[in-house]
Design brief:
The chain is an all-alpha fold. The chain has one domain. Helices cover 69% and strands 0% of the residues. The protein contains twelve helices and no strands. The longest helix is centred in the last third of the chain and has 29 residues. The chain starts with a helix and ends in a 6-residue tail after the last helix. 41% of the residues are buried.
Length: 301
């Protein structure tokens, strides 16, 4: 696909890129409609069983922190978080060494931990502040549905920017200069800013809005404890779990993309990378919109 994208002239035109956007959105829309909740639940519970019983009861503060990290780690198996996790994968190709990847993931993780820790402090506030929300699958689902639909729409808008149809919203990919005489904006600040933006976006939307029983049980436990410090610690561990899966998967993606020919192609086809990234964002955004708009059913009270 990469060769076709870089060599076929029509795809460089506005019409060609608009067609790509429409096709990607249509594919994602169909994917969301046919997403299997049964398979998703099987993957979530099956992954969880590798470490603990999905129906585990939190009986201590230390267990609460451990369960919080585990819930964040396995959350990638659900459609609530999978689109965001996949959307973060292109960052792996922006890091050329293990050290660069480690630093990028540190920024991503710290941002996600900060957001979820603040959420933990809010959850630990007096129960009257969150009366009817904490522990209610219906209420959380009612919040999640419009939030993820709106987030999916924003992903499609970002995809249009990557395809050059509107002004780009995402930071550009920076590759090594072709020669020492050609300067390049390869500042780590750009890469870290991108990771921070991505981490904030994922944690504040896909990360903290989830109707899974074990996650809701964790929120109830944190609310009952009523300690802001513990709330920040437990939900911060949850955010670390969210980031950990991306870090592990991205490491393998980065390893696979280390081939010299691939790096050379990437350096000479930066625009193609934006096109591919736009297609991915459009498909994932449309998937979230179609699933949570047309297929997701809010649990009864």
């Amino acid at each position: 696909m990469s060769v076709a994208l870089s060599n076929v002239r029509p795809l460089t035109s506005t019409t060609g890129r608009l067609i790509l956007l429409v096709v990607a959105v249509a594919a994602g829309f169909v994917g969301g409609l046919y997403w299997s909740l049964e398979i998703s639940a099987w993957a979530y519970e099956g992954f969880l069983k590798l470490f603990a019983d999905p129906g585990i009861q939190i009986t201590s503060l230390a267990m609460g922190v451990a369960v919080a990290y585990l819930v964040g780690f396995v959350h990638v198996t659900t459609i609530c978080y999978l689109p965001a996790a996949l959307a973060a994968m292109p960052m792996a190709q922006d890091a050329r060494t293990d050290r660069e990847w480690l630093k990028t993931m540190a920024v991503l993780a710290l941002t996600m931990v900060a957001v979820t820790a603040v959420w933990g402090v809010l959850v630990s506030a007096p129960s009257s502040v969150f009366a009817g929300i904490i522990g209610s699958r219906r209420t959380v689902s009612m919040i999640m549905q419009p939030t993820l639909i709106a987030t999916g729409v924003l992903m499609v808008v970002a995809a249009a920017g990557e395809l050059g149809l509107i002004r780009r919203m995402l930071p550009g990919l920076h590759t090594p200069p072709a020669s020492v005489d050609v300067p390049a904006d390869d500042s780590p600040r750009t890469r870290y800013r991108r990771a921070a933006i991505m981490g904030f976006w994922m944690a504040a939307t896909f990360g903290i809005v989830c109707p899974k029983p074990l996650y809701l049980g964790l929120l109830v436990y944190v609310a009952v404890i009523g300690n802001a410090a513990y709330g920040a610690l437990a939900l911060g561990a949850y955010g670390l779990g969210l980031a950990s899966m991306i870090a592990i998967a991205g490491h393998f993606v980065m390893r696979a993309s280390r081939a010299a020919r691939f790096r050379a192609w990437l350096a000479s086809n930066e625009e193609t990378f934006h096109v591919v990234q736009g297609v991915v964002f459009a498909a994932l955004g449309a998937m979230a919109v179609s699933f949570f708009w047309l297929k997701y059913i809010i649990p009864p009270a």
